[in-house]
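tool=predict chain=A
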Amino acid sequence: MSDQRVCITLKRDNSGAPILHADAVFPQNGPFELQLPTWRPGRYELGQFAQYILRMEGLTDEGVWKSLQKTDLHRWQMEADMSRVRWSFQADMLNAGSTCIEPGLLYVNPVNCILYQPDNVGWGYDLILADIPEDWTLASALPRTNMTLHARDMQHLMDAPFMVAESLWHAQYEAGGVDFHIWAYGKNTPNQAQFIADHQRFSASQIAHFKSFPAAFYHFLYLFPERETRHGVEHEDSTVITLGPSSKCLTQEGYDELIGIASHELYHAWNVKRIRPAEWTPYDFSQACPSPLGYVAEGVTTYMGDLFLYESGCIDLNGWCRKMEQLLMRHVNNPGRLNMSVAASSYDTWLDGYKLGAPGRKGSIYVEGAVLAFLCDVRIMQQTNGEASLQTAMQLLWEQFGKDRIGLTAADYWSVLNEVAGGQDALNDLREKHADGCDDTWEALVSSMEWQGLQLTQSQEDGGVIRVQLVPKVA
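tool=predict ok
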C-alpha cells in the first residue's frame, strides 16, 4: 500500500435520512482538483453520479468550511493550503451498483460517491465507518481493521464495494484452492445448503477450465431487500447481486435467476476484470470510454455463465435449453440487431445507455454477444473435432492478456479464436457477418444447434411476437 494515504470518515445522517456524509483528509495541500467518477465498472454508460452530491466543502486555513467551485461537471477545485474536504451524498437507490442506506443496512459502492485526486491515483485509502455499531457485520473484499477498510490505491477502492448490516448470513466454501465467501442481507435467503453446493459446483468448474484463479479469495455479496430489484455487478475480487422483494429468492424461478447471475458474475473475475478491452485498461473514470468489445465483455460472459451451470451439474440439458430459448426470444424479437452490429452497439452503450432507445436502432451486447459466442463455440468445436472450444480460447486469452492485464483489441481476440480453431481465417466470416455486420443469424443458429443434437424452431404468435423452441432431437 502507498505511504501516502487519503483518510475518509463515513457517517450516516443523524436524522435517519438516506444521506451519507464523507469527511476526507488528503496527504497534500491544494491547489488541486478532485474528481468524482463519471461511471462505474460493470456498467458501460455515464452514471452522472455528481447529481447525487448535496454539498461539497473544503476547510480553509482559518478553519472555515467553504463551498468548492466546480471545474467540470464531476470535478471540484481544492484551494491553496486546503487538504480537508467534506461532502454529502444522497443514498436512497438500491441496485447492485448503487450506494444505499436503509434501517439496519449501509451499502456503499465507492465509485458512486468517493472522490480521488487524478494526478495521484496511487495514493492509498482508509475508509473509517465511524457510526456503525460494534455488533454489526461487515462484508467486503477489502482488508480491514475493525471498522476501517483499506485500499492499496484508487483503482482498488473504486472496484471494492462493501455492506455492513445489523444481520448478515455468512457461509464459506473452497473450490480450486480458493476461499469463497457468501454474504446475504435480507428478511429471506435461499435454501442455504443448496445455495452453497451450487456455488461450489460452478466455481470449481470455472476454475478447472481456466486452470487458475486471479485471487486467493472471492466474495459474493447478496442483497435481498423488500423493494423490486434484480441486478448483478462484477468487481475485482467480489460481486454484488440484488433480488427483491426477498421472497423471490424462495421461489424456483428466483433461485434459478440468482444462480445464473452468480455464475455470470464469477466468470467476470477472468473476463473483464482481467481479460479487458484496451479502452478500459486501466479504468479512466473521468470520461466515457467506449469500446467495440462489449460483445466479448458481456456476450461471452452471458453465454459462458449459463454453460457452466450445465457443465457443473447445477442445471440439466433441459434447463440449459430453457435459458437459451429465453435468450433467443430476446434476440429474434429485436429488429435492432439487423440495423446496427453488436460491435457498434457495444460502442454506443456510452451514448444512450442500456435503454432500448430508438425502436429498432441497436442490439444488446448481452444477447447478441451471447448468440455470437455460441456460434463461435460451435465453429471451434467443429474445426477441431471437439478437441477445443471457445473456452479453450478464453483460457488462452487469460494466459496471454489477463494475467498481465494487457489491454485486448478486437484483432487480438479474433486472432486467438482463429488460432484455437486451427486456421488464420476459421472464424472470419462470423466476425464479418455477426460482430461487425448485421447479417441474420437464424440459419447459422439452426445448423449449429443441429450439430449439437438439438432442434431449434420458431413460430409467430398473434401480435407478431416470435416464439422459439429448443429441444433435443429425437433419435
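The chain has three domains: 5-165, 168-269, 281-447. Residues 322 and 417 are 27 Å apart (CA to CA).
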